[in-house]
Amino acid sequence: MIPGVNSWVNFPPSLCVQWSMQPIEELDSGTIERLGKQGELLLKMYQAEFAKDPSSRATESSRSNVIALRHTVKQMYGDAAEPGT
To answer: In this structure, is residue 49 part of a structural domain?
Structure first.
């Protein structure tokens, strides 16, 4: 939070940043590899928690992390991030 700023409406125009996403074809291989490794790690953690106790809070938390990563990638890269496209 910025002192003296109560809402996003108060931000001066100089703080506004336009952000555009790169098409998936233009991403460097390092970024793609990191996203893949992160997804793989989160999925393995979920599977391990599920094997211990399918209804535990840890399982639900791990599942939420997998879903959050998937949604984030989908929001960032759209349909190009979907498997098989």
So the answer is: yes
- Cβ(78)–Cβ(25) under 8 Å? no
Who contacts 35 (Cβ-Cβ below 8 Å, separation ≥6)? Answer: 73
pTM check: above 0.85: no
Question: In terms of C-beta distances under 8 Å and separation of at least 24 residues, what long-range contacts does 16-20 make, across chains too?
Answer: none
Is 12 within a domain?
A: no
pLDDT band for position 36 (cuts 50, 70, 90):
confident
Cα–Cα separations (whole angstroms), residue 26 to 21, 73, 81: 10, 15, 12
- pLDDT band for position 32 (cuts 50, 70, 90): confident
Domain that holds residue 46: 29-85
Number of domains in the chain: 1
* Residue 15 lies inside a defined structural domain of this protein: no
